[in-house]
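Hey L., structure's done. Input below.
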Amino acid sequence: MLGIIGLIGGLALLTVLVMRGMNLLIVAPISALFVALLNGVPVFSQFAEKGQTDFITGYMDGFSGFITSWYLMFLTGAIFGKVMEDSGAAESVSHWIISKIGMKRAVLAIVLACGVLTYGGVSLFVVAFAVYPMAVSLFKESNYPRRFIPAALALGSTTFTMTSAGSPEIQNWIPIPYLHTSPYAAWEVSLVTALFMLIAGYLWLMHMIKKAKRNGEVFIERENDQFEKRNHLPNPFLSMIPLFVVLIVSFLLHNVLEQSALIISLSSGIIATWLLNRSYFRDFWKAVGKGTEGALIALGNTSAVVGFGSVAKITPAFNDAIEYVTHLNGSPLITGAIAVMVIAGLTGSSSGGQTIALPILAPHYIDMGVDTEALHRTVALSSGTLDSLPHGGYAVTTIRSIAGETHKDAYPAFGAMTVLVPIAAVIIAIILFTLGM
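Output:
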């Protein structure tokens, strides 16, 4: 019981401290230490028994492992976003969008831009880096409170595209080897849930933005914003080309190089931006430097949270929680959804929720004769729910590191888009599967 209290208490401590705006590089290891101490995990390797993982090793393995896997993707993604901003390409595209669809649909433009890139195979983290400069320009033009930018980015990246049929994101591909399905599993139900998340999320987000504006909130510029009046902007159609370069290169190389394709596609986007807009740059190398700084901050914050999840995984309480949620009685779709949600919430990772639950659930449910396509889609959708609690890696990176907002200001809308809307989609999917769709 003490271990469970430590696990839940550590997660609550991390969430509260994050919401209060404290530095993640400090609060994540402190919260992880709380979990470790109440679970009897030795702090130092010198106190660990043979084969036992200590707190420091567990935390640093998670911290350094994430950096090893994601450094170059974060770096190229952040630099791409900065050069798009410094060249005026992001501003040019945003002005063109506003002229065509009007300021009232600026948020929809951001959501769809993120959706196209995500469905094209670009990593969720990288999409946020790439689209953020355009989002800032559009929010400024529309005079929308900038604290809603993370929610707009997340709605387009982690909802109707990340877990839908045909998506190249790993959340849609992890179930395949376990369930022997295809990435297009249950596409009919997936289409319904995707449309629901897009429409319901967009309408809800716009309702929150309009309410904030009625209460007197406006867009507030910052010292590091680059909004001084430009006499000349690059051609908007040429400015869009780097975005399509990232999308096309990522799509073409995704099956061969998998995640590594992002390094090439983003580097191609940087080069394309320079070639097409080099006469419009204020300072190309300064933009590269700023992008590098942003990448390091984002990577550090996210790695700190991943380290917390790594410590949680080595505790006896975590194993007990996994054992419990993966052996719940009831409808396989409902119990499978709950198991994946809970594990994703504990680890702060959608992929973690699936990779831990599926090896246990899949063989048992297949033997029961469960519709594997329905289970595939339910599990995929469920993984994109509680992974976006305040301590989740994507939430931390997007809100704190990319957008420079506080959880207190930005998370209510962000959580509504990334937790509540996807949970509603899971419920809809289960109902449709139960009805025989």
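The first helix runs from residue 2 to 19. The chain has a mean pLDDT of 84.

-- N.
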